[in-house]
Each structure stands twice: as C-alpha cells, then as structure tokens.
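Final report, closing paragraph on structural work. Over the funding period we assembled a curated collection of sequence-structure pairs, and we close with a single example.
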Amino acid sequence: TSSPLNYPPPTLLNKMFSSTMMRGATIVKPCMEVRQTAARQGPVRVQASGLEYAKTLPGISGPFGLFDPAGLLNDADESTVRRWREAELTHGRVTMLAALGFVVGEQLEDFPLFGGNISGPAINQFQQVGPGFWEPLVLFIGVCEAYRVAVGWANPVDNFNSLKSNYDLGNLGFDPLGLCPTDADELYELKTKELNNGRLAMISVAGFVAQEFVNNTEIFQHLFKTLEADVGL
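Its predicted structure, as stored:
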C-alpha cells in the first residue's frame, strides 16, 4: 500500500541511515585520535628561534658575551641549540676530568695501582695499562651513557636526534654532596661557571695533547724547561 505522503520504503531508509553513520564515523574517528594524541603530548609550545633561545641560556659572560662568530645560531632552531648545549656540557665535563688526569697521572708514575709501570707523557700512558682495566672502564662508560640517554633524549621513533622537551639541560640528578643551589640566580651563575670551566678545559686538553705530540715531554717538564730557558734559572 502506498503512503499518501510518499515516504520512502523502510529498506531505503535503513540504507540511507547506515551510509550516513559510516561517513560520520570515518570523520569522527581520526578527530578523536588527534585529540587523544594531543592530550598525551600535552600543550603545544611554540619554539623560539635559535638565537633568541640561546640568549636565555647560561654561559653568556664577558668579555665576549654571546660568542657566535660563525653565525651558527642564525639558522638554528631551538631543538638544535638544545642539542648543541647538551653536547657542550658533556664534552666540558669530560675534558675537565681529562685535564685533571693529565696533571695528576704524570705525577703518579710510581703509583702501585698499575705496578709502577706507567711513565712518560699522558698521551702514552693508556697504552701501558695492562689487561683488566679497559673492560670495566668501557662497561662503566656504557652504563653512564645509557643513563644519560634515558634521562634526556627523546624516543627516536617519535622524535629522532632530539632531546626531551621537559629535560633540564645537563641535569642528570647527580649531586651527591648537595651543592646545587635552590635559588634561580645562584643556579644560573653556577651553570655559567661550569660552562666556562668546561670551555677552558677543552682548550687546555687540546693544547696538552698537541704539545706532547710535538716534543713527547710531560706537561710540567715542558713548563719548567721553558721557564729555565726564558728566565735563565
């Protein structure tokens, strides 16, 4: 029996309703996924330019101020500058230890830890160390690096070769003596001192290595010979 209002038959209504619901689900599902992903990642923060971000970091001090003679910061973004600063901090800390190792190691040639067989310039002392030293050292370095990566670096699947956005540069939670200040200004000043000492250590170690390669003489022996020749002692 035909309807006086010419309604479509029930089967046609069902098909139209099902088609509409499928189109709606196709649109809604990706939107829900985007909202869920954004909720997991937190609020989006607009990144500053590399130069502007670098001006907010510790390490800017006289007489050079923000030292960038090559203009590398002009084309860098914030993520890149964060990675550079993390590398600078890491290399500065390593070379501060290396500078101390050069000076102390050359004065302890008869130290019984290695049987008193270590002598000469520091650049040749590693080759004189016997077995049983390198294996624990490599393991220790690997553990330290794995911990540093876990604390500061983002998952490479999601964000390759980048640091975590909430990572405080250089802060690995290592402060056994409780020396880290809680005041923001004091902490900023302490970070600047660490960076400056690390930069000086990188230059110093490069000089140590070059000098010992040239004349194969220990650091202080070279210093005393130079003073003797210049002053006439």
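The CA atoms of residues 125 and 132 lie 15 Å apart. The radius of gyration is 31 Å. We thank the funder for supporting this effort.
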